[in-house]
Design goal:
Layout lengths: L1 H5 L7 E4 L5 H12 L3 E6 L2 H13 L4 E5 L5 H8 L9 E4 L14 H33 L2 E6 L22 H21 L4 E8 L5 H6 L1 H9 L13 H8 L10 E4 L2
Parallel strand pairs: 1-2, 1-4, 2-3, 4-5, 5-6, 6-7
Helix pairs in contact: 2-9, 4-5, 5-6
């Protein structure tokens, strides 16, 4: 039994997490750190990233900031150049930026920005970190890339439950996340031969605390759509992340793990 628990350990591993200061991001960062990983906390905001690192260090965990815009190849390279000679065991592409919209209100640039922060950013980050991922393979036998997709990569939002919103979940969000799942499959085939596993994780309804407080009627409607009869709590994404990040998923590659209740 103890051997099985060790499969989920990330002790001695280093993990890069983009979008680490968001609602799900902080829970993922904490979960990785609790499992023993040294967490590279990415954000565009230095103050928010420092806050996350400080919180993790207060709990006795290991973390440091990596400040860059995931949409900028130059910023990615500059932020990680001092880390290029170190192994990187885990990369989690979690960053996203964008508001609500409809087909009638969505602009061309909204689609471009959504795709850039979702798919192009993932590709650019892996290009920069590939030498470090290969070093991790030599050191521990594997490396793991996890792309955070969404339930809306597979299904369309029910417009009725968004009736109280002027701008519901936008059409370009699910479109970009669907593309990310396909990019994951492609990357899994290309990098799998190097023992670098690439998987995606699609969370279901995990509305932020702010949304829960501001739109309680929406939360009730949303929960009714879920077979378990409730929304997800952000800590519930940690277990699936640790599974994909660790040796517990040693033969899982190119999969999309759905966490939607």
């Amino acid at each position: 039994m103890e051997k099985n628990f060790k499969l989920f350990s990330l002790k001695g591993k280093t993990a890069l997490l983009t979008g680490a200061t968001g609602y799900l991001g902080f829970s993922i960062a904490k979960g990785l750190a609790e499992a023993g990983a040294h967490v590279l906390v990415n954000s565009r905001s230095e103050s928010r990233a420092n806050e996350v690192v400080l919180n993790l260090e207060k709990l006795g965990y290991s973390a440091e900031t990596k400040i860059f815009n995931v949409c900028s190849q130059v910023e990615i390279e500059n932020a990680l150049k001092n880390f290029s000679n170190n192994p990187l065991n885990i990369v989690i592409n979690n960053a996203y930026q964008g508001g609500g919209a409809t087909i009638k209100t969505a602009r061309t640039e909204d689609y471009k920005k959504s795709y850039d922060v979702t798919v192009t950013a993932a590709n650019n980050i892996i290009r920069v970190t590939l030498p470090s991922l290969r070093m991790a393979v030599k050191q521990t036998g594997y490396a793991s890339i996890i792309n955070i997709a969404s339930m809306y990569a597979m299904v369309s939002p029910d417009q009725e439950i968004y009736s109280n919103f002027d701008y519901p979940n936008p059409p370009y969000y699910g479109t970009s996340k669907a593309a990310l799942i396909q990019w994951t499959r492609y990357a899994a085939c290309e990098l799998g031969r190097e023992k670098i596993r690439v998987n995606s994780l699609s969370p279901g309804p995990f509305p932020s605390t702010k949304i829960q407080k501001k739109f309680p009627e929406f939360i009730v409607k949303l929960a009714k759509k879920v077979p378990l009869g409730r929304i997800g709590q952000r800590e519930e994404v940690v277990g699936p992340i640790l599974f994909l990040a660790s040796e517990a998923s040693s033969y899982v590659n190119g999969a999309n793990l759905v966490v939607d209740g």
